[in-house]
Amino acid sequence: MPLPASQFLTPRSMEIGFESCESQKQNLAAEILQAGGKVRLAARGHSMLPALWPGDLLHIETTSFDQVRPGDIVLYRRWDRFFIHRVLSKSDQAESERPSLVTRGDSMTGFDAPVFPQELLGRVVSVQRTSGQCSPAPRCSKARRVLGLMLGASDRLRSIVLRWHSWRTRPMKDSGASTSPARSGQTLG
């Protein structure tokens, strides 16, 4: 006896299940950070290029609003989404009616809406690259900002750079053959 069409998974029902799963993960991460814990999240998107690349593992610790400084990369939650952007400036209670942060992705031209203390979840303290290398959260130099703006302004350039990054950081095959001399220690000559 065939099953009724209503019992099949449709692309929309799978999307709802995915959204629900992602929402549950975000809720759990937010609870851990609000309780004073630490989480690791994989970077997604391109708003923080070239400081953060898709797939980088971000080590995030709870931080209070008072501890945040311009230049820090913070995690905040708004509209049931996580945002990881750099703090450009901070207004304290003495300076304004409501304390807030001004943030922006390194490859974005516009500022985010003000981030209020209740939205702040944590601060990125270190980044583990897809290569396995772990380093402190990167600062935003002038060169990095210019490159970020170029990547944000040009879809074509961003696509090329993301493909190059994906190729450069792909796992090596077990066969022993290498398509990248630099990664295998070989030299061209």
For the largest beta-sheet, the strand count, sense and barrel status come to: 7 strands, antiparallel
Total number of domains = 1
SSE topology string: HEEEEEEEHHH
Strand content: 15-25%
Categorize the overall geometry: globular
CATH architectural name:
Ribbon
User: What is the residue-mean pLDDT, rounded to a whole number?
Assistant: 85
Q: Cα-atom Rg, whole angstroms?
A: 20 Å
- Tell me roughly what share of residues is in helical segments: 25-40%
Helix-and-strand structural type:
alpha+beta
Relevant CATH superfamily: Umud Fragment, subunit A
Give the terminus-to-terminus CA distance.
68 Å
How many alpha or pi helices? Answer: 4
**CATH topology group:** Umud Fragment, subunit A
Low-confidence regions: 5-14, 175-189
CATH class group: Mainly Beta
User: Count the strands?
Assistant: 7
Walkthrough of the structure:
- With 189 residues, the chain is of the alpha+beta class.
- The chain has one domain: Umud Fragment, subunit A.
- It is 29% helix and 23% strand.
- The chain has 4 helices and 7 strands; from the N terminus they run αβββββββααα.
- Strands 1, 2, 3, 4, 5, 6 and 7 form a 7-stranded antiparallel sheet that branches.
- Strand 6 and strand 7 form a beta hairpin.
- The longest helix is centred in the first third of the chain and has 24 residues, at 11-34.
Describe the structure using short key phrases.
189 residues; alpha+beta; 7-stranded antiparallel sheet; disordered C terminus
